[in-house]
Amino acid sequence: MLNKVSLSPVRYSQARRADVAANTVQKSQSSVNFAGTKTSALKLASAYQALYGIKNAKTLNFTGAMELNDFEKSIITPKEIRIPNLLEIPENIDLPLKKMPKGYEKLNAAGLNVIKESSEGLDKYTVSNDKGNIIFIGKVDPNRAQLPVITYKQGKFMPEITVKDPSLGSKAIKMFSGSELIGEGISLKMPGQYEPTPNEGFRDVSFTGRTVITTLNKEPRTISAVDAYVESGLQKNAIRGDYADLVEKYDPTVIIPAGGFGERFFNITREYENKPSAKLPTDERYRIIGTTLNLAASAGVLRGENDDVKYLSQNHEIKDGAGVYYVSKYKTDGGAIAEGLSRDIIRNDRDAMILNADIFTNADISRTYKALKTLPNAALVIPYYPVNPQRAKSFGLLGIKEDENGNLQIKEFLEKPQYTSDAPMPNEFTQPGKYDEAMEQFRKVQSAINPKDESQFLANPGLYFLSDKALKVLMAQGILTPDETGLGGNVMPKIVKLANEGKLLDEEGNKMKVYTVPLEAKGGKTAVWDDIGTAEAYLKLIKDVANEVRLHGTSEQNKYYGVPEFVLNDFAKNADLQSGIVYDSKEAKDALGAFCEKYAIGSVRGNIYVAGH
Fold it and tell me: How far apart are alpha carbons 506 and 389 in whole angstroms?
């Protein structure tokens, strides 16, 4: 039987519900399903208790199924708690801290406190988290004729304040940690680190088409984003890679996994859409997936004529038509790729370049492809990107061993290690054998140290280059199957293991090998690479690009050289390096100007994004 939480013992007036509902600015359109888990029901009840000032909730009853109305969905979702307007809360909010079970710890649905107090004619709102750390302070003059609507959101990744006002039109001010907005009778501050100028060392199928894109979520948006790039002719302007002639000679297939739900990017998009189709501060022709399409274009795969893009549709949201193939739904894109190969939708008689769809890089992938074609018996080449020990904990790492010719062969595929530069200590473990297991993992991680710089580790940037010989063997022997769905978690580690055991043989019986080479930009320079996975990383990237344009223009001295020139210029004109504000357009900049004039804002700075809502 499905679970239901009975809220009848938690009494709040219908009039109060209507009052808060009237002040709700943004309502979630997504369905919410709390059925089946007692934990979710408890979280929901805790949210009601907090939002309506209830201090003594009664025992909860679990019977039957539960439905949420639109207003209830606007208050709590599976991803966040949302206070529609801080300035409208009638009393303090105290969300009691509850012990969250494993897997729910990062939802941050417990331990939220909002204190409202009045002093010297101002209303002061202080928000703190479960550790007692203050994460927002707001002061407003309640006697002003008009005040903006200030929405607070606490979710999986970070708190956010959204400011809306008629003077902003369709735009909104999104404040993240390390930002402030101060004017007459209004002061909003999000404590946290803010750097006015980025540090110099920042980024501490069988068909005739050449490109295959696997999709899962919001598929029509993905198509629209790809079409806008292809139809605009931007691929003709891509800076040609050093070995584009070699790529054109062998004409490999480019595979772009574009599934996923973009949960980590929710603070920017405000929609659960797939991140590749999300907007960058450029015109509509170039969204996040445009970076990956540009990699293919610079390598000579997308040429601006006879570009035939195919889609493997996992969720079947794409209308049936030419170039659309329906496949089963998988947890990750690896299964869709395997099914495409097994059904001869993706050709296995050509090399394949699998390129992540939600990255920002100026890499010249024709250089990595050259390694695939020239290294002895190469089955797989994964380029490495150097990262510091702390950042290494967020990536898959490549453990390597140098062969007799000085080539780096991949020996270990290490996913997000807990220990990098600091070894585990015995007093951290109570269960027998756990310390030994941790030390074994630590020893393996040391094989991923960069041989050119011992202060760095070799991270996997999510770019994979497979030879046609390897594809044939993997399919013929049933090694690459739809059941093995994770590219980084399942498929690639399995290929590495088989190669190192000498069990990955080509049709002539030769042992195939797996290699890594540095991820390089045109001319052999170290490439700049970033997974723009969170709002904070997104804003830092834009400001870093703007700083490079300020220093070097769009010349070869710019470390992002290789990214389309208009993208670099758009980033620069939409970022204010002095204040730290990023705009999604000129209209957003004008809107903030109107807001500042209306409220006599004297200081606005920090990690702030002004964009459509």
Answer: 37
